Amino acid sequence: MTRYNVKETEAKWQAAWDAAECFAVRDNGAAGKPKYYVLEMFPYPSGRIHMGHVRNYTIGDVLARYKRAQGFEVLHPMGWDAFGLPAENAAIERGVPPAEWTLHNIGAMRAQLKMMGLSVDWSREIATCHPGYYRHQQHLFLDFLDAGLAYRRESWVNWDPVDQTVLANEQVIDGKGWRSGAAIERRKLSQWFLKITAYAEELLNGLDTLTRWPEKVRVMQRNWIGRSEGARVFFRIKGRDEPLEVFTTRPDTLYGASFCALSPHHPLSTELAARNPALKAFIAECDRLGTSEEAIETAEKRGYDTGLRIVHPLQPGRELPLYVANFVLLEYGTGAIFGCPAHDQRDLEFARKYGLDVIPVVLPPGTDPDTFTIAEEAYVGDGTLFNSDFLDGLSVDEGKRAVIARLEADGSGKGTVQYRLRDWGISRQRYWGCPIPVVHCAACGVVPVPREQLPVRLPDDVSFDRPGNPLAHHPTWKHTTCPKCGGAAERDTDTMDTFVDSSWYFARFCCPRADVPLERDRVDHWLPVDQYVGGIEHAVLHLLYSRFFTRALKRFGYVGVDEPFAGLFTQGMVCHETYRDENGEWLYPHEVEKRPDGTVVHRDTGRPVRVGRSEKMSKSKRNTVDPEHIIETYGADTARWFMLSDSPPERDMEWTAAGIDGA
């Protein structure tokens, strides 16, 4: 009997599927068949697929095949999240243009994915770096601009003075640039924003309808949106006309206030620093913390006493010192707080450092008010109010309502709702991204590029031999004429955050060759995505931005749905043991040999190898297995079977040679 030849058989049938376009679907589906749209989060074209890809796309493919067998017309497309920093890094390190590097990687990964035997409609393939895609994204940006959902303002950013670029919080490591190693500065730059906060309440309420999403993802989004009910309190500053406005979620603790504090970049801080060198130096020191909440939260709590005094709104005879403090965020609330050290750990640390009063005003249940004190830890639980004049004896919730009523009656505050969510800054000082379709004219200001002139294409002849944004120092690209007055103008040299690219691609798959961004009848037929598959690491940003985009697209008349993804499945990670040689260098699994006596050695040298714990497969720790080698050796069906059989798909799975042999 002839031995089964995996490579020949799978290649034969995969070629037959391609030739017959077995998995292509009509634009509006097949008559009489219900639709089903299954989509996995599209990959970044890094050059090779990894086992995480294999697991992700296997899960989606099995569902697509199952639904076809049930009689559904199944849309199962594939594309490429193709813009991003790695392509620029490749240009710098290898001297390869980003477009060439990206398109080469797409070709290699497409071939690998086809080896997996996925039932994908390749006729709908898209790449976000193609002008045919980003032309329509620029059109959508202008829709946002027309609707008042895109705007430009100055904001604080992490600035790398060596690379001369803005860094995301994740790219700042111990206060230094991830690549240059330079100390990061906080700078104020003009940035483009999308007004996601206009949809904060809708996005929050919409989570209740997503019953086929994991609860942990919905909780993460609720926390990110961060709806807080509280009060805006107007504190009078002695000797000044303008009051200090403070947002608080705990108006019930006002009687425990012992100081007020400003963000280093609050307008009043800036004003005071202009004539106070010591304060200016303190603010510069705060800037070295970076912009992330994590960095600010973990830093030692420090402040600068401005010398100004604040009048307590409920106790006019009592004054509080006003500090500039390194832990107050300009982006949250109003950029100013009142500190109640007894009931907030951060405030307590600050008060102990500067010798400020600690006045408990919430009494834990069953506690004697005469003996209750605050030592090393603030009390943040529920209880009864005391030391609080007319609030004494009330519960925390009753106290909140009573304080708000008093503040509103006195004109010194009001009840309000605040969100943690901030508008989405989309400006990136990078080359390899979607150009922002506006020009800057000395006479007319910011002027949109006319839609008939889209796309604003990226230039091919860019140089990466100097720091900074290649678009900004290109000799000709940025120079243009104003569409409004015909005078000299400059193009915006920022490009869009790549999360914009992935915030609407699922809709473009419904009509990938349309001459408009989206064709309503085709989009309405396929959306929402019935089952979306991807990693939990995208629980907030990508998924939240996509939900925001869908609501905006509905407002513009492109779609008829509020939610893009009816069902969400977050698969577990693929893990493998880690290995290091005697010098501490990471080793690939194929460089390691496990001997019958249980020892683990380097395959070439025979020297001992240290075996580490099993972790998510990553290039940095080299605990990766090449899917192409597995597929060529065992076949795609075997690899897919092992991916599905070894553990529940929502859990992490351990990749072992014995496991794939068993499959």
Molecular structure report:
This protein has 663 residues and is α+β, with helices and mostly antiparallel strands. It has 4 domains: 6-138 and 499-570, Rossmann fold; 227-419, Valyl/Leucyl/Isoleucyl-tRNA synthetase, editing domain (Isoleucyl-tRNA Synthetase, domain 2, Alpha-Beta Complex), CATH 3.90.740; 437-493, no CATH class; 574-662, Rubrerythrin, domain 2 (Single Sheet). The protein is 30% helix and 22% strand. Strands 10, 11, 12, 13, 14, 15 and 18 form a 7-stranded mixed β-sheet that branches. Strands 2-1-26-27 form a 4-stranded parallel β-sheet, with helices on one face. A 4-stranded antiparallel β-sheet has the order 6-5-9-19. α2 packs across α18 (636-645), α3 (85-94) packs across α4 and α8 (267-273) packs across α9. It is globular, with a radius of gyration of 29 Å.
Outline of the structure:
This protein has 663 residues and is of the alpha+beta class. It has 19 helices and 33 strands. Strand 13 (303-311) and strand 14 (319-325) form a beta hairpin.
